[in-house]
Amino acid sequence: MGKITLITGGARSGKSTFAEGLLQETHPVLYIATAVPVDEEMKVRIRHHQKGRNPSWDTLEAFSTLPQRLAGKESFYGGILLDCVTVLLTNLLFIRSDLNLDRYEEGFWLKAESEILEDLQETLYFFRKSSAECVLVTNELGQGLVPETAFARAFRDLQGRVNQYLARESDDVYLLVSGIPLCIKESGDE
Prior knowledge:
This protein has helices at about 15-20, 40-50, 65-70, 85-95, 105-130, 150-170, and strands at about 5-10, 30-35, 60, 80-85, 135, 170-175, 180-185. The protein is α/β, with parallel strands linked by helices. A seven-stranded mixed β-sheet has the order 3-2-4-5-1-6-7, sandwiched between helices. It has six helices and seven strands; from the N terminus they run βαβαβαβααβαββ. It is globular and about 45 Å long. The model has no long low-confidence stretch (mean pLDDT about 95). The longest helix has 24 residues, at about 105-130. Strand 2, helix 2 and strand 3 form a beta-alpha-beta unit. Helix content is about 40%, strand content about 20%.
């Protein structure tokens, strides 16, 4: 049964570096990169992450239908790193045809959250039935100012509920603060 570790923290807190370090001695490793190079700034971010990644790791660039894309590889990888859940959520929202950036629609957010959580449940189920050590990276968004727009507030709330779900389902959870990992849940904690 696969182990799941969740790494959370603020922007540039050292989450990815710490997550990669957890799998440095694991072979083979699959890195699931969820970013899409939509503009120059995102392309620079992606290149930065690629440079820091272990060159012997396999990479899957994907943010949706992960269990289907990984089918048949349940016992191939010793480690799987998904970086990052926040970008995955953003991409899942922006591919929706019913997204309206100009107006808050409660029905949209309720439906989107339900479908996203269902997708994440399937992904975690895949990770659990695999033999891999699985590490997920996510962002803590709710510790700063209240966002100005309804969309940003709804996204922050969705991210917070997704993080709560992932933390409940994970064996270990680490919070990164200024590059320092704080273990906030260990296997066996309830």
